Amino acid sequence: RQPMAEGNWPEAIQRWERVLDQFGPTSSWSAYRGLIVSYTNAGDLGAAEAVAARSREVFPESVELADAWAELPMAAEDWHGSIDRWNLVIDSFGPTASWRPYAGLATCYEQLGDVDAAVAAAEQGRELFPDAIDAVSTWAQMAMVEENWTEAVKRWTEVLDRFEPVALWKAYLRLAVSQGKLGDTAAAEVSLERGLARYPESLTLISHAAELAMARRDWILAVRRWNGVLRARAVYAPGPLVRTSFPRRGSQWDWHEDGWQAIAREWEQIEPELGFQPSPLLYRALAMTMEKAVLPAAAIDMLRAGSAAHPNDHTLAFDLAVAGLEYH
Question: Which three-class secondary structure state does DSSP give residue 28?
Answer without folding.
Answer: coil
